[in-house]
Amino acid sequence: MSLLEIRSVSKFFGGFAAVNNVSLKINRGDIRFIIGPNGAGKSTLFKIIIGVHNINSGSVLFNEQKIEKLSLSERINLGIGVKFQSPSVFNKLTVKENFRLAIKPKYNLEISHFLETFGLENDQDKLAGDLSHGKKQWLDIALCSISKPALVLLDEPTAGLSFEETKTTGELIQELNQQGMTFVIVEHDMEILKQIAKSVSVLHLGKLFFEGSPKEVLNNKQVTNIYLGID
Amino acid sequence: MNNQILRIENVSAGYGSAMVVNDLSFSINQGEVLSITGRNGVGKTTLLRSIMGIIPITSGTLLFRNEDISKKSSSERSMLGISYVPQGREIFSSLSVEENILLPILVRNKINFKKQLNEIYGLFPILEEKKHNAGNSLSGGQQQQLAIARALVSYPKVILLDEPSEGIQPSIVKFIGEIIKKISKTLTTTFIIVEQNITFISQLNSDCLVIEKGKILSRIPSRELRDIETAKNLLSLGNLL
């Protein structure tokens, strides 16, 4: 059973098909990367999954339930966590206060473990706005995963990070994955893809172009031609 | 050295009382490519902005072709031959691609720009294909090419690039790396490139400065960065600190 299924989804802007009859199945436990050239439809697909864009045809299923008509907050309540490209933390609140806001009232979660996991234990009383860009990204990932959603969607989580911060981000995602969270990640950074991806979908011109393991994708000549470039 | 084009001597710069660049010195020759890397917030962008004159330096000297430019404005430095491509590119979205390219020479009242345009389009064919399109209709990779083209059109001696690979697909990153190497050779343009992408740094065939807390931690020679795994080890802070 797939945790997330995109079934023949299309999204048009005027006469332009940004996503054109795309179908994807993402199983529990996966770390799925979605890659493709600029304009391939990755961001549109991301926004379709979280409910920012309505679709023109097809359906989106989460845990076999159709969710394409649900709002973003309804989808989050079903167990979908979202992290946008720019960190969306509350800069004028402390790290600890950001965590408290993110925890649903029905959960009485202990945050010290999370602070430790994300390397923020010494920053808990700092304003989030005073954190480095890397730590802000990690705080943002922590906030969208603290309620243990079944599915976490990340849009370019390594944007603006050094390669060492990127590696740490990969390790954090792997740890959350081992705790049972499934990930869908839109990225251009091939280092983190090689580090943690379990499967990869390549979009091109709004369509699903290729799908396979990281090795299969990185060794595919057509993917090299349209996206990776020749060495 | 005789062909030294830019010399940074004991430069400090920052915001208010917080010094972000701290007593930093290095030099670069004409036609050389130098990359600068380091964690977020260590002073890389501040260094580029202080070379361009956007942020005043609080101490030290900036020498451009042996002339002290420390007190000169950004526009004076630009007229001398220093160009800056900031992170985020800052393309004029409502102007066409060609209008974006021509802005730096139009403001210099130069009316014969056909040669420059032909050279730019020779380097970046996609910009010729899209020359009448609005700047904001381009993809991120195309916008980065446009930003470099706009910096290049006035034939500057030095181009400062801030994270040119950010958010761009790998094939375009490779293309931009090859173009930078080509321009540095054929036009002897000097490039100072702030970058976090190790694959891109490795491709540039350039020395790399590692910055930490506003100071140069190490200068890694280009020959040691050609192999990506060696480059990762050499540029790792854990190994340098």
The CATH class of chain A turns out to be: Alpha Beta
User: Secondary-structure element sequence of chain A?
Assistant: EEEHEEHEHHHEHEHEEHH
Q: Give the CATH architecture of chain B.
A: 3-Layer(aba) Sandwich
Q: Low-confidence stretches of chain B at least 5 residues in length (pLDDT < 50)?
A: none
Going by CATH, what is the homologous superfamily of chain A?
P-loop containing nucleotide triphosphate hydrolases
What is the CATH domain class of chain B? Alpha Beta
The rounded distance between the terminal residues' Cα atoms of chain B is: 30 Å
Task: Explain this structure.
Chain A is an alpha/beta fold. Chain A has one domain (30-38, 73-228): P-loop containing nucleotide triphosphate hydrolases (Rossmann fold), CATH 3.40.50.300. Helix content of chain A is 34%, strand content 27%. Chain A has helices spanning 42-50, 72-78, 95-102, 112-117, 133-145, 163-178, 190-196, 214-218, 221-228; strands at residues 2-13, 16-27, 31-35, 57-62, 65-66, 80-83, 151-155, 182-186, 199-204, 207-212. In chain A, the strands form two sheets. Chain A has a six-stranded mixed sheet, sandwiched between helices. In chain A, strand 1 (2-13) and strand 2 form a beta hairpin. The longest helix of chain A is centred in the last third of the chain and has 16 residues, at 163-178. Chain A is globular. Chain B has helices spanning 44-52, 74-80, 97-106, 114-123, 125-129, 140-152, 170-186, 198-203, 228-234, 237-240; strands at residues 4-15, 18-29, 33-37, 57-64, 67-68, 82-85, 158-162, 190-194, 207-212, 215-220. In chain B, strand 9 and strand 10 form a beta hairpin. The longest helix of chain B is centred in the C-terminal third of the chain and has 17 residues, at 170-186. The mean pLDDT of chain B is 91. The chains are: A alpha/beta (231), B alpha/beta (241). The A-B interface holds A 36-39, 132-134, 156, 159-165, 188-191, 224, 226-231 and B 37-41, 139-142, 163, 166-175, 196-199, 232, 235-238.
